[in-house]
Amino acid sequence: MSNVIWSGLHFSPTGFAVHSPRDVTPGWIGAAVRKALEASEYLTPPAGSDPAPRIAMEACSNERRLAFWEDLASTYGYKNVGASWKKFDALFVSWFYETEPDIEILSSKSSRVGAHSAWPSNMDEGRVFHVPFAASDAEIGEMVLRAFSRCEGPGKSTEPLFP
């Protein structure tokens, strides 16, 4: 899913957001990641600017985020959104197109309540992955799958991501 970085990280009100069944290919995953990164926005308004546009964006972001999770919970048979939040693995994916040629993918750890965080830098060996943005969709997708395999936490799915 696309993000808006504007005084914090927000679900994009207008960008790319998708969930998929387990039978998609690494190429499909890579294409989705590329599209989400290309649609993400990094905004730095001038100091002292009017906060009203950011506040409006946050409201739209929250509405779209909740609708996305409602759809995901309904599609995959979760009892409710809260149950789906406790059962998913997350990656932190970034690409700074003006300065970095590589996509950085960080595996996460989750808490009992479903919150996700990246590993501290002194414990992240084998949990941080890089792949060139110019790589094929399949290569990006394979790296995403490798990163998912390194996620940990009490809510972690016991099923392989792709059987």
UniProtKB/TrEMBL annotation:
CDD domains: CDI_inhibitor_EC869_like. InterPro entries: CdiI_Proteobact, Cdil-like_sf. Coiled coil: none annotated. This is CdiI family contact-dependent growth inhibition immunity protein. It comes from Acetobacter sicerae.
